[in-house]
Amino acid sequence: MEEIQSLMQGFAIALSFKNLLLMFTGVILGVIIGVLPGLGGANGVAILLPLTFSMAQTPGGTTSAIILLSCIYWGALFGGAITSILFNIPGEPWSVATTFDGYPLAQNGRAGEALTAAFTSSFVGALVAVVVITFLSPVVAKFALEFGPPEFFSVYLLTFCAFVGMSKEPPFKTLASMMLGFALAAVGTDPVTGTLRLTFGSTHLLVGFDFLVAVIGLFGIGEILLTLEEGLAFKGTSARINLRVVLDTWRELPKYWATSIRSSVVGCFMGIVPGGATPASFMSYGVARRFSKDGEQFGTGKLEGVIAPETAAHAAGTSALLPMLTLGVPGSPTAAVLLGGLLIWGLQPGPLLFIEQKEFVWGLIASMYLGNIAGLIVVLTCVPLFAAILRIPFAVIAPVIMVICAIGAYTVHNSMFDVWMMVVFGIAGYVFKKLGYPLAPLVLAIVLGDRAEASFRQAMLVSQGDMTIFFSNALVGSLTGLAMFLLVWPLLSLLIARMRGD
Predict the structure, then answer these.
(1) Phi and psi at residue 188, to the nearest 5°
(2) CA atoms within 13 A of residue 75's CA, in its CB half-sphere
(3) Per residue, what are the HEC states of 243-307?
(4) Can you give the pLDDT at residue 60?
(5) How many CB atoms lie within 10 A of CB 320?
(6) How far is it, in rounded angstroms, from Cα 389 to Cα 26?
(7) What is the 8-class DSSP label of residue 196?
(8) 40: Cβ contacts below 8 Å, ≥ 6 apart
């Protein structure tokens, strides 16, 4: 098959000494990021993205850069389970469900078993998602080559509406966050006419708000401020994983094959839709509890309660890259940051990427297989070292992270204006967190806002202002109709709940 041949070529690229070194480096950095509450996959990728600028300028450098960033993401996915199980502190939002049974297992002296199950389940979930990406992405990309402006706008609209209809956040807060993102995306040059707008006479705003500066501020600075305010204190159990614990746990895991399959399906679906890793982990935990014969014992230290959320979270986090690569539509905040990286490097995510940058795409997909193997090896052998990081007071770590953020923001355009904008976005991110407003829709709108606007206006030019162009054929009509349904779904579900209550 053509996919297999392309994948083998991708392995040849990913298996170079330089890329293998970058894989392990990225995984180690990612695990550290995942272990430290207040950071996370999206934050780590955003903070370290400026390091790839010079790398991307060299031949084959874009592949090496995306391998490094994606492996930081894989490492963060693995690392979140360490603090959840040992300290009852979720290192990542999607690790909350892991604490329900992981921490009780650790308290019962089974921390090594719980960690081995979590890491192995994470690997399985990611592996299933990568297989889906391998065989499904070329099909989606070929199909998307037939897309015109109406089809692309309907895909963007579906993505925006999916965040409103399927997010666990209040829909009006999601909408408000997204609208602010659209306003920020409108600053700078009009994507159709090329005229300037909303620059208020500032030369710094001629190119608009830089996506990377906004993300570093919103995620990096905002999360650090919130974490410092909470004053985290780490008290937990210790764990050592040896070969005997690993082998004993691996012998037990096949008993939960049905849970792994269900969780992988839930995770892949929620990653592609996009729903995200956090709702996927909670949904999978609930499904596992519903179908388990020991469901009433969940929360007291059941291994199945660790397997389900970890499998789903990794499947969702990995499969979120499928729509990003094939359609240019990110399925998660981290995928949105990676999308911004591709745009900065001069690559255009979407169906043409599989034709014009074939080596890049398949090198990335091959690195997903290898990166997850590297991640499993690193976390199984170095858990005590990563857990020891939490002994360092966060008040010491936080200033170091802030300095890294400032350096990253400055290197975007070598401008102090970007550093001050990072601070402004950081304060905004802190306020959003305090008020319960989600950041993911804001980031999504900043990344896709101008592209969605360009597709909409091009469609309007083609149809001479006739809005029915978004229902002109079965494909675009189905996408637009589904988007409208998801947009009003929170209201419909509220009405249904009230009717049942009456």
Answers:
(1) 115, -130
(2) 30
(3) HHHHHHHHHHHHHHHHHHHHHHHHHHHHHHCCCCHHHHHHHHHHHHHHHCCCHHHCCCCCCHHHH
(4) 66
(5) 32
(6) 17
(7) E
(8) 33, 34, 76, 80, 91, 92, 93, 219, 223
pLDDT for residue 170 = 80
Kindly state the tokens that stand for 103.
Answer: 């921490």
CA atoms lying within 13 Å on the CB side of residue 116: 20
Phi, psi of 15 (to 5 degrees): -85, 5
**pLDDT value for 90:** 61
For residues 164 and 174, the answer to whether their CB atoms sit within 8 Å is yes
Identify the H or E element spanning 67: helix 61-87
Angle at the Cα of 143 (from 347 to 454), degrees rounded to 5?
Answer: 50
DSSP letters along 69-82, please?
HHHHHHHHHHHHHH
Q: Where are the domains of the chain?
A: 2-501
User: CA angle 439-404-367, nearest 5°?
Assistant: 75
Query: Would you say 305 and 299 are in contact if contact means Cβ atoms under 8 Å apart?
Result: yes
Mean pLDDT split into 10-residue runs, the chain, 502 residues: 73 83 85 67 70 69 80 77 70 70 79 83 88 83 76 80 72 86 84 77 76 74 74 53 75 84 84 68 78 74 84 84 78 72 75 77 84 82 66 70 75 78 88 83 78 84 84 82 83 79 58
Single out the residue of 328, 335, 321 nearest to residue 349, CA to CA: 328
In this structure, what token pair is assigned to residue 431? Answer: 């306020």
Burial profile 42-64: b = 16 or more Cβ within 10 angstroms, e = fewer:
bbbbbbbbbebbebbeeebbbbb
| Cα 312 to Cα 432: distance, rounded to the nearest angstrom | 27
Length of the chain: 502
Judged by DSSP in three states, 154 sits in helix
Find tokens 């293998």 and name the residue.
20
Tokens describing residue 386: 């990563």
Using only C-alpha atoms, what is the Rg of the chain? 22
Which tens digits make up the pLDDT trace of 381-410?
A: 776 666 566 566 666 767 777 777 787 677
User: What's the whole-model pTM score?
Assistant: 0.69
CA distance 214 to 442: 10
